[in-house]
Specification:
The chain is an alpha+beta fold and 144 residues long. It has four helices and four strands; from the N terminus they run ααβαβαββ. It has a four-stranded mixed β-sheet with strand order 1-2-4-3, with helices on one face. A hairpin with a 2-residue loop joins β3 and β4. About 5% of the residues have low confidence.
């Protein structure tokens, strides 16, 4: 299958004639009725994240009423990414005002990640800049 055909199949524009389906009997040595057993070294990401306290919530509110869910997550100590791109500007402003008051009241911080996308960080969370330490600002492309 050509690369254009594969891309079209991946996007769902055409049927993928090269798909392979596996029967339930494919598993060798597995008897019917046996429960699915995973390797004990493998852990589900959400379970380990919940145990370690390393969860981040992403919320895309559709109206101002969804702000309550943002507040409840943040109050529980979970950093929240708030995507306001689907809200009209007046509701988005109300949600940002609510988030600002929430972070102030609980001693957290609010950072703008992108246009109409904000990160609410609890007090015990440190937001690290993605740039390498000691990097010169205009050093690489500055050929003057």
């Amino acid at each position: 299958m050509g690369s254009v055909r594969k891309a079209s199949a991946w996007l769902g524009l055409v049927e993928d004639s090269d798909e392979r389906y596996y029967d339930d009997e494919y598993a060798e040595g597995a008897e019917t009725g046996d429960a699915w057993v995973t390797d004990p070294r493998v852990r589900v990401a959400s379970d380990s994240a919940q145990e370690e306290g390393r969860r981040i919530a992403t919320v895309s509110p559709s109206c101002f009423r969804d702000a309550r869910g943002i507040g409840e997550l943040f109050r529980d100590g979970v950093p929240v990414i708030v995507n306001l791109t689907s809200l009209d500007p007046s509701d988005a402003k109300r949600v940002v005002d609510f988030a600002a008051g929430l972070t102030f009241g609980l001693r957290g911080s609010i950072d703008r990640v992108a246009t109409r996308v904000f990160l609410l960080s609890p007090a015990h969370t440190q937001v690290v800049n993605g740039e390498a330490p000691g990097r010169v600002q205009d050093g690489f492309y500055n050929q003057s």
